[in-house]
Protein: RagB/SusD family nutrient uptake outer membrane protein
Amino acid sequence: MKRNFIYQIVLFAMMLLWSACSLNKDPLDSFSDVTQGINEEGEEVVFKNKAEVQSHLQTLYNQLRDRQEHWYLDVLLIGDSHSDNAYAGTTGAEVLPFENNSIEGSNSVMSRDWNRYLEDVARANLLIVNVDSVQDNSLTTAERQQYKAEAKIFRAMIFFDMVRLWGDIPLITTIAGDITAETIEEVYDEYFPKQSTEEEVYKQIEKDLLEAMPFAPGNNSSDKTKLSKSVARALLAKVYAEKPIRDYTKVIQYTDELAADGFALETDFTNLFGMNADNTDAKMRNTKESILEAQFFSGNGNWVTWMFGRDLINYNSNFTWAKWVTPSRDLIRAYELEGDQIRYTESIVYYQTTWSNYYPTSSYPFMYKIRSALNSIIKYRYADILLLKAEAMILKDSPELSAAADIIDQVRQRVNLPKLGTATRTNREALLNALLKERRLELAFEGQRWFDLVRLDKVEEVMNSVFAKDTGRRTQVYPFSANSYRLPIPQSVIDQNPNIQQNLGY
Structure:
């Protein structure tokens, strides 16, 4: 690349830095002002002392509470409305394409998610790169190792979400150097990183989690908000189920380690998402099934509630406009055909509305797994991982069909459904289909369905047929194909970084 072009690009990069644009190598965040200046050796000091390290670690945890759009709201839009579980819910130009398969690189949801995820990566990198150089004797080696481990689990979680959405992404694990006339060519790739392959990203996720495991805090049954060893194990189980580094033996291993950590199915399914008897608080937090959750309390509630339906502790607040992620007729029918009354009523609720985008106003369904500003958002739970173990047992080279069926039956019997029949239990393909259906009914409105279809190569089969049988779904714009497994990279990113290539099909 010619030097004069590089200078033009770097000038633009500096403008991006000044505007805190999240497309940079080291996107600025609200904590970037912690930089204290230059020490006696002329080195930049990022964290002056232990308190500032702890404060920055808290900013990572705050992302799970305070910035829910990208890691929760949009994951549900993609996981459920971009699958057969739900409609978009509104007719907005940025939301409807997830229902009718017309997403393009100009979509603002895609841009928001890309930007926010990279901001999160930058926050994690700031701690990982700098914690060991903090000059504070009260910050012990064990504490440095733990804080770095928590940041690596956080970074792995973000990269996992990103790679499943976009495939090849920039793999950013460092902090960009200063731009000067002498360093322009040296730092160019840091500010305009190339994409890494899916496999490379998965290997970095694996590396982060394995390095974090010995030093991360252990599972605390009374506080499921921490990036613990158990969160790392859950993520590893999910990572090893994915195609690029698939290892079914390890899926089973890490699921079993979660059981050894004390995780199990909650006996009563209604404990997971329910409210107390007078609808003034969540029914339970920190259940034995919850692996990682964001918790909310009076005075500091969960704002995304009103994006999906009613807030039961503030019943009429923000209920004058159409909500996102409306349950589909196809999903409702799946619950009804299975006789799955418990999960149906815990997942879907009906209210009267003033709009009728998909259903009559008199009986309009809403997703019901976040039903108040005080409900926890559960990022990972044991039922998901346990069913992945069943999937691994079905698909590994030497299948264990009976053991896999026992796991599925365990999930079914919790909600009073009968065990699988012999014909299903003894047939690999039939059992895999039963597993996929069970995951759909169990994990509806938890952002899992689309990724299940992608992981099991079911996108074309399921999604191209649902438009014909689901009469309430908007008209399909493009058929699903092999290119549909990745979503479009925001066009603004490609315009600003010549090293980023758009995914095929967009």
The radius of gyration is 23 Å. Residues 1-38+45-66+104-215 form a domain with the Serine Threonine Protein Phosphatase 5, Tetratricopeptide repeat fold (CATH 1.25.40.890). The mean pLDDT is 91.
